[in-house]
């Protein structure tokens, strides 16, 4: 037998195995035996994990009993907490941000200068799914009207809308009879944001949906961290009136997660509920096995919870481009444009 | 001239690279062809004296070919730039093709007309808004869909919305609408996030056994006004119970009542709040505060008053 051809990419584990004379499972040619070996390996791993968890739990319990702080638990890595550091993250105490907010295009809206007025229109084609979606949008957003597109250019429509004192304009674009894009133009001088629209679910299709009232909704803007996200959040806020009627208990949410903006429309209610919790472990007292077993494991507590009932449509937006000024794709100044090479890193987000 | 006839015989019957045979008609793909059809009189290869109009980058040129230059292919075609003015262009054609066969003159003028018309149309269209068609590479579409689904699970939407609403409730954004004495209760979600549950609840355990000396009623919220009006008859009595004498004598009864109070709070189930009403009018969320069922005895032996749930 000649010398075995060494695989250059053996790792430390495999090297050890080979030196110990044990066969690698991946080298067994017989499928049944190979899968049996793998099953053994997996069972080993599961056993080890259980032991680790048990050891960790006992260490924690002992530490708590002794009155020391237990060793900190490992925090699992998620995409959110390994996100690439972004220098444009807006800090709440940033003076520059506050100054900018005072003079940007939405400052008038936030100063309650006028009630927002929304114009919704479509691209040249308007099929029935798009019309249904727009109908739902009209129920969610107060003071919104739909106008048919006709054969006008967008720039002309922007001019007409300005003449009639609209504050925002939506253009729902569609492809193959399904709405797939949303162009939001904030009207007096506002920025134009183009979003990809996806995952539309109309209220009829939502199980257990509720019927919204006509109260002014409350707005929730979650997770808009960077400066760009802050600007987009203000753009959304400019669509809804600034005086929510809390008694109506209507909440409209724009939640940003990994650059996808999820839109939800709920009715909510606060309730007091009895919650069962694990019984607290008191220091030193009753730590022997007998009394531990006798003590009650759960304790009832009163807590206030919020319950939601979804009404109205559900959809997802993804920002494609943000252009300052009203719609002008040829000569407009783009603040942000999505390019394909922005997608290369899985930990980098812009909103 | 003799060679023209020969050329045509060959081209027509044997093979011509530029001929495009259709069901009804034969077309000629040669760039210099005036009409675009494959005819004896239209064929640029089979006619030693020929002229066409061609468009290069929006300007029109008149091309002419004559027998004298047929031996020198490089200098075969003479090119004249036509003026942009349609009328003047027509005159130029007339001038250059003055003694040429009428067929060619006519066809050239027709071609000029057609070309100017389509150039005008192109310029008009360029001013109009054109819709930009964007490609959607299947790979990217799939990737986006996948990422969206994962983002959706990562954003635990219901929980985060509820959390945000509870934060707003705690920070007092809703003012007087809700009657929860929120400071006494704790958010469940916040509880989960804290360090070992043992530490938090330990503090609570120590607080509860404390004996509190309170009045008969727990008057914590401001909008007790309607409640106050209800008991207007006994309202005179209320201030009396705040006197020290009244309190001290009520101490014993209070303590036992305190215990009852706690027990009643713990065992109380959540009140029936209308949750799924779809009315135009707002549901009165400010329901009457759950008051503990407490009986108050006064020293002066007045009527017993009890609160209602």
Low-confidence stretches of chain B: 194-208, 218-287, 305-309
The CATH topology annotation of the largest domain in chain A reads as Rossmann fold
User: What is the radius of gyration of chain A computed over CA atoms, rounded to a whole number of angstroms?
Assistant: 29 Å
Low-confidence stretches of chain A: none
Rounded average pLDDT of chain B: 75
Q: What CATH architecture of the largest domain in chain A would you give?
A: 3-Layer(aba) Sandwich
Query: What sequence of helices (H) and strands (E) makes up the elements of chain B?
Result: HEEEEEHHHHHHHHHEE
Overall strand count of chain A: 11
- What is the beta-strand fraction of chain A? 25-35%
Give the fraction of residues assigned to helices of chain B: 40-55%
End-to-end separation of chain A: 62 Å
Topology as H/E string of chain A? HHHHEHEHEEEEHEEHEEE
Large-scale geometry of chain A: extended
GO cellular component, one term (chain A): preribosome, large subunit precursor
GO molecular function (chain A): rRNA primary transcript binding
Pfam family, one (chain A): Brix
Organism (chain A): Physcomitrium patens
Report what the structure shows.
The complex is a heterodimer of chains A (about 350) and B (about 300). By secondary structure, chain A is an alpha+beta fold. Helices cover about 30% and strands about 25% of the residues of chain A. Chain A folds into 2 domains: about 1-65, no CATH class; about 95-270 and about 310-345, Brix domain (Rossmann fold). Chain A contains 8 helices and 11 strands. In chain A, strands 1, 2, 3, 4, 5, 6, 7, 8, 9, 10 and 11 form an 11-stranded mixed β-sheet that branches. In chain A, a hairpin with a 5-residue loop joins strand 4 and strand 5 (about 190-200). Chain B has about 300 residues and is mostly helical. Among the domains of chain B are: about 1-45, no CATH class; about 50-130. Chain B is built from 10 helices and 7 strands. In chain B, the strands form 3 sheets. A 3-stranded antiparallel β-sheet of chain B has the order 3-4-5, with helices on one face. In chain B, strands 1-2 form a two-stranded antiparallel sheet. In chain B, strands 6-7 form a two-stranded antiparallel ribbon. In chain B, strand 1 and strand 2 (about 25-30) form a beta hairpin. Chain B starts with a helix and ends with a strand. Classes of the chains: A alpha+beta (about 350), B mainly alpha (about 300).
